[in-house]
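Researcher: I'd like a structural prediction for the single chain below. Treat it as a standalone chain; there are no partners to consider.
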Amino acid sequence: MGTTQLESVPEPKYWHLKTVLSEALDHDFAVGEILPNERELAARFGVARATLRQALEQLELEGRLQRRRGVGTTVAPPRVGVAVGSARHSWPGESADGWEAVDAAEALPTAAVLKLLAAGSGSAASGSASAADQPVHTVRRTRVTEGQVVAAELLYVPAASVPGLSAIDAPAGPARARAVLRELQRLALDGQDRSVELGSARADDAKELDRLPGAPVLLVTTRYFTAGGTAAVSVATYRADTCRLTFGDEGVEITETCVAS
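Model: Treating it as a single chain, here is the predicted structure.
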């Protein structure tokens, strides 16, 4: 990055500096590379550190930079695309869906999980008192891009959806998670819906995503339907600085794109 004169630029200094830095990121730095420290950058461009911080914050919001604890400011990988409006329907865990199985556990559902499974379900039993007595499999998965975890998912699968699952074949860990997914894929998928909202990272999500608690995230909730109602619900937490929404019948095919209905 070369030195530039900012004194005669009519737009705010930090905004022009952001443009200069963005161009440098395109040509002079590789994904994951650590930028010089703030003192060096401020001296190089002849600006106050407060101005520099404003420019860096804007680039972080745009997904160009990442501030990593114990590492510094690094060049961010391309954003993951979360496609909305595609006509494609598929079960989680099918080929090339981009997620890695981490673990699975079975327990009685909490009130929050019961509410998720009942919402939008064609089955009145999903939210009934008897549903609270039926165990639910919670599958944990992560999505990795450029060697970095960019999303974490909790997939809730009622035991009634996977009656053929054997506790003996895969008792725990990634193998157990994959076994739940395989059994789920035996069902006929009638449809799915997806909602996206902006949220804040909880402590456990923040740790897995290498973010501070409260950092902005995209919460993507997907419900999978069979003739009997809601067969499973996925709640995926995406790093807001590494993701973007895409729209259209087929979505936008980019690196690590998610496709949903």
